[in-house]
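--- STAGE predict ---
source: upstream dedup step, 1 unique chain passed
mode: sequence only
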Amino acid sequence: MIKKYLIERCSWLILFIGLQLLTIFIALIDPSITVRPVLYIVFLSTVILVVFVIVRYQKETAFYKQLGDSDYDLTDINKGTSPFEKIVEERLDGQTKQYKNELTQHNIKLEQEKDELLSWIHEVKTPLTAMQLMIERVEDKKVKEQLKYEWLRMYLLLDQQLHQKRILFMENDLYIEQTNLEPLIFQEIKALQSWCMRKGIGFDVSLEIEEVLTDAKWLAFIIRQLLTNAIKYTESADISITSYREQQHTTLAIKDHGRGIDAKDLPRIFDRGFTSTTAHQDTASSGMGLYLVKNALKPLHIKISVQSNVGEGSTFTLTFPNKNEFVAITGM
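--- STAGE serialize ---
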């Protein structure tokens, strides 16, 4: 800061030095003026200038130091004292108020758009339900299965979009309770039944631990996304779902025998919009499912790990916090 201050006051310092040199020059060329007293005056003036610069540096840079150290929050900055500091302060206050007003307007607009989208999704679910009832009355089995599959795809996309908008405010919607895994898992399997039958996929469910402490609605969404991901890349093979106790934690593992994930892709599979580097032309994946899973797991304090080999399949493992840990984390 002192270097910047000296650069800022460079013209003043040059003027002072120039005046002192001029005084010495006049004393040298004028025989009536004694040089020694002039040099003494120049020395005292220089000392006074140094002290003055030090004092003014402390006073003049305090405001700008606070301004430079602040992280866009100007509320804790001391009021300006000099006229120029007050000009800067008034300008910054004006811009801050303007940006806050604009940000408030944008937030209101985003909230309105989110509410409108959520309302639209709920409205679309009504004709989807009616469509499902109509599909059940179709006599041609082949056409019926095709319609069920397309209906399920539409439903899953809407459901994903719905949770994508809700996930930003997920913590306001949590209800932590002891959740029975078996009915929750079988409900999700039943919802995906038409897709599984179409691809020749079965399920092997073995639950040593039947209850976990979590939010049932959001856990159902997470399992739905993991099952959807497993079914999407599996052909004519079973998907196993197991729960067990490991290191005092309940663990839920979903294992498929699909195409697997390349080792170089594993660190990126939870990134927004990431699909694959080995099958980049695959348009079946939106790259949103696992991204939403990762974001939904954070407020629930559930850890996820992935093991996968290309051509052999993948295992997604959810590790739930035990009750004591959850209480310590959430303050319940």
